[in-house]
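INFO  loader      accepted 1 record
INFO  loader      residues=260
INFO  predictor   begin
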Amino acid sequence: NTIHSHDLNVKKVLDNPENAPHKDDVPYSFKVTINNAPYTGVVEIDGVNSNANAEGIFTMLHTQNAVIRDIPEGLNYDVEEVMPADTDAYSYDEPVYDNASGTLDADKTVTITNTIRLRYADLTINKTGIDPLDHHPADASGKEERQSTVYTITGTTSAGVTIEPIEVVIYGNTSVTIKSLPIGNYKVTENTDWSWRYGVDTITAEKDTNEVVEGNSVTFDLTWEDETVNYKNKRSKVKWLSGDCYCENNWGTTTGLKSN
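INFO  predictor   done
INFO  writer      dumping tokens
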């Protein structure tokens, strides 16, 4: 009698590989059982033979394919991913399986798809130091004039993705919060060319995570905790514009009195 055999292929797919840190060299683990027992034989990974361990577990990269060859026909099989641990920077959704278990009546391909979620945190920029004289309360029409300051946020996520620059405006001594930034390394810069009358006095990042202050900028690591960056400003120019609009108005009277 001829004994037929079939191959069991295991394929790993990342649904959003751009979020995967070091995505091309992180190994993923899989447990295989054949006829309800751990498979401890040879696993061919991209043409190179290795062995599953005593628990039936082997590892491979998501860019690779694994094949267990020549399994006797009619045996049942089951493939399960051993979920990697979450980190501060990212987490894994439960895998989605296609053809994960069944009977070997033909060659089978098991596809395991993961979605990796970058973890996020909020960034608040808090502004102080604007002189109350530069704050004009709302008039009858409801219009309120306050000194405005422009900030640019740049950075790279923990997965190595460079974010598009974000610009925000703060009016007076208030704050603004950017919600749900991916974990990573960020830089906040105050555009003092815009708010030319004020300069930066001090900058602090409250979590102080690898904080580096340089000029009008601060660079820091955004971890899974929300971060607040405090900017304190001071007037660098007392007069408006060039000062040409500023002059003393001295005038005399017949009695010799004058007023400034």
